[in-house]
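Forwarding the complex inputs:
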Amino acid sequence: MASRNSQKASFVIMIAVGLIFAFLSGTMPQGLGIVAFVFSVIALAAAILAMSMRYYSYLFGPMLRMKGGSVVLDASDAFYLSQNGNAVIVRGDDAVYATSFIKVPVYSSATEMSDEQSYNFANLFSRIVSLSKTPIRITSQLYSINKDDYLARINTRLAEAENKYSILQAQKGAKKPDLDRIKGEVTMWHNMLDSVSKANSQALEVYAQVTVSGGTEDEALNLIALKTDEISSGISAALGVSASVVSGTEALVLLEPEYMIPPTTTTELMRYAQAEKGM
Amino acid sequence: MDERTILYLALSVLIAVITMISAAKFGIIGIAIAIISAVAIGIMLLLAFADFIIFPLFTKALNITIIPSKDYMIPKSQDAVIKYSNGIYYATGYLTANIYNYVFAQEQVQEESAALAQAPGKWEKAMMNIHFPFRYSVIAAAEEIQRYREELEAKRGLLEFQYSRETQGSNPNTMGLETMQRQMNVIQARIDRIGEGEKPVNSMMYIESTAVGISEKEALDKLTSQLNDLSTVFNIFDLSINRVIGRELYRLHNINYRVPTLSELESEFGVQK
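Prediction (whole assembly, two chains):
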């Protein structure tokens, strides 16, 4: 609301400036054409700025403070997780916003449905969108499964096996069967790393997102808890599933790109894509 | 275009018109003022109707990037939100996915039922053809039924009046009459559906995808390719798909952290009913 008010105030000021200079330009005597021209340009610039206030008022203040071609709208983190991990908090100019995510587990597949079942299922889903008079976002997200920890474990085992092999190789009395066994282990970890890294494993998640505002963080958190209960009960009743609140790092998968596409998993995939291109 | 934009445009254009009229007495300088005023009116109209063209031109010309929050950046092309993390660039882009055209072209309940029955199967087929991360989002809020019904009845009344005036004229426009008849049928179908217990909904739909790259350019190129693939795949749903460029990008990015209120949605995006 504060931003809406500042938008209106900026618009009114610009229109006032524009009108004043437009009238001044009109009242200039014929001999002062140059002055009229300058006044007209100022009036027109004010008119264009007034029009751009409709959609871009949020940019004007930061643009005046711009450094090196970067307009900084907000230098802080976009959000932070609440202490209980059940909500995401965003601080606005005049309110605190709490957002929660509700997981909608859907296990049905259209391939097992008759036309009528399929129609009923789609109808049930369309009913979810009319659950609340406050806007809710229903999202279906396809994301990369995080294999970072798994890959790290395989890499550790591979390094251990390679280390064992080089130590054994350096020993004078090392037996060939022992060497072959360790070499086999190294090959096994290499193959496992290859197969796990190459596969682009993905998961599909459906979730509902709802936001409420409050004067303080506590108020917003209390309100979001109530709203989340209302929405998750509605979803559970409509679809016959058990909708649950997404919390902690699980919520980050729905928010941050590096959780949606985990770095190590991605780097490995990119490495293989690059290698394949090279071949 | 909403009422607020019309008000902003009318008052801004008024200033340009005043300068244009008052320029008449200044001879050559007056002509220059009139030309500049005409250009200014053109810019204002572009800002009102197609700001997605003018805003990226402005940011490209001045080489401006926007930092919406820590670690994020909107490049001067205004077509993606980029995050640099762990040595990787993540570029996120958006597509509109409006069913607006569909609703108006075929407001036939029977056809809609058939489309609804096919939807889950089509959705699964689409998912099988996508091999990169993306989100399909619907933001929806139920409408106050009584208010919505009254709005529809008012619209129907206006159309009926226009229709009867057109038919009573000496040379009625057949094409115009057909269009009005179709619009009246659409409104009647909606009123009937509310009578059958269906809830009217304000909604907005969009698709979001993220691509990774070891350089900003690579991530942006991959993103463009992913968004093109998504446009192709989602074509089966008869959606109106366009890449989001300009100010809406920043607004859509923020939705991930905070769902806007209905008035914000109407003001910034123009929701569908």
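Confidence is low (pLDDT under 50) at residues 100-107 of chain B.
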